[in-house]
Amino acid sequence: MIHQYKNNGYNIVMDVNSGSVHVVDDVVYDVVPLVEEALGAGCPEAEIKDWVCGRLRGGNAGSDTAGSKADSKDAGNRAAGSTGSKGIADAALYGPEDIADAVEQVMELREAGMLYAPDIYENYITDFKKRETVVKALCLHIAHDCNLACKYCFAEEGEYHGGRALMSLEVGKKALDFLVKNSGNRVNLEVDFFGGEPTLNWQVVKDLVAYVRSLEEPFHKKFRFTLTTNGILLNDEIMEFANKEMANIVLSIDGRKEINDLMRPHRGGQGSYDTIVPKFLKVAESRNQTNYYVRGTFTRNNLDFAEDVLHLADLGFEQISVEPVVAPPTADYALREEDLPKLLAEYDRLAVALLNRRKEGKGVNFFHFMIDLTGGPCVAKRLSGCGSGTEYLAVTPWGDLYPCHQFVGVKDFLMGNVDEGITRTDIRDEFKTCNDYAREKCKSCFAKFYCSGGCAANSYNFHGHINDTYDLGCELQKKRIECAIMIKAALAESEGEESNEEE
Prior knowledge:
Elements: E1 2-7, E2 10-15, E3 20-24, H1 26-40, H2 48-56, H3 64-71, H4 75-78, H5 96-111, E4 137-141, E5 143-144, E6 165-166, H6 169-181, E7 188-194, H7 202-219, E8 222-229, H8 236-245, E9 246-252, H9 257-263, H10 273-286, E10 292-298, H11 306-315, E11 319-324, H12 340-359, E12 365-366, H13 379-384, E13 392-395, E14 400-402, E15 416-417, E16 421-422, H14 425-432, H15 440-443, H16 448-451, H17 456-463, H18 471-502
Helix pairs in contact: 1-2, 1-5, 2-5, 6-7, 11-12, 12-18
């Protein structure tokens, strides 16, 4: 499967199945879908050069049989984002030697398994249901309560479709015992302190960390903690403890003051920006600008969300995530299909702006433009995604187990509790089937090995089951991936130029 697109002056060709990414010139870019078309039509390899040359220069293909078969297909549809053999502005400028050379390059990449690679991964999913379930992470809902009234909060100010509650130390210990017991031979385990607002129950957080540390040596485990906070209660004591024990801290802020205060007010209506910004900057500096990120949400109120990312960067934050809201269509702040052109263009604008900042020595890590083209997760992880409902579970203040924090309070997804463990193994088995090949829309999508099919909760909320996709979110995710790869290409080009200058 091939995906082609142009971004910021770069011609990018992705081979989805091999994971190879190529930055190519115009003639190779236009040749790639035609070679694919010819191969699919059964054109003999010895005749492909003549056939492609004929197509590009308006003549007849070298093989009448293959040509007639291939002519019946639309090359533009065979490679998403490609112009194919139609509408090539400069086709007449390509000489036979240029085309022949381009075809030769393309065929060499094919021979090396870097273009037109077969899909060999579907068989990976056949035994997912049979695999032993090993829990590796828990999201502890330390507090079903919050001191803000964020308008887009899926947790209803921390209540999660129920009453306000704080997790007791006893329930927290049982949850951690459950994690150790169900983690098998896995050494590295993760615990997220989540809410609501977890600092409302800070002593329990501290006591649970101490309890976990007492479990590490006897059970041969290593725990990694994350704290997610709105920052209202942050003080020196909390920061000191978090810097000692928390591997990562997530700091919630939406960007510009007017945007943040519109969506993230106190319950009395006053804004939170002025309270949290000095505290968040102190956290960032105290952690040497690593192992944290500020996380915001953009809505229909700020379709120019690039300004919010750049605002956070200008404040001095170097680890930034600003994500699209996921909300019912009835919400006035919900993103709509009609907003998509603006949103896609905004990601392009943001990518160029962040690239320019990096070249100026003012680079930041934007979470959604971070991509690993050389390693990254294993194939099984790329296919199955985040592991919700299997490897990752959420725990309520009273010890109920759910597939993840976004399912908490939805009774159909109550999997068990910390006393009895998982009693609804059918729910767990259903989540084991969540993968790229269980979602029809994902099978032919170039992004499937990067997003792993998207969020099961979003699928459920928009379609009533977990094996579909949130369509608007998919389009935004694909654009983010394209931008991330463009940035990689631009930085590689810059590094090459610098190397040549040094020589």
